# Entry
Amino acid sequence: MQESWIIDGSYYGTLDMRLQQADAVIFFDLPRLVCIWRVIKRRLQNIGGSNRLGMPAGCPERIYWKFLKWVWRYRESNRPQVMDKLRQFSERGKVYVITSDHQAEKLLHELKR
# Structure
């Protein structure tokens, strides 16, 4: 059996290293209002001290203005570089670009088969 793993995140500083090890990438390219809403919703759902899945104990969900600005400006400031790297990666691996919840559900269904 071959070793396999899944990693998530958007830290550009390690993107090259992660792409070297990957055989497929799922890039969520959702509208900025959807992303902003989900940041706020995630915070509201975790009011009261409970940590969301994947967060270490004692590290409650927070919203910082700097982060909201980063999310809002992502399409202009970060996305072009990421898309360029994904175009290069697509020569040797599979790239799925998801632009809606419907596409995500469809891909999930296809991958389950």
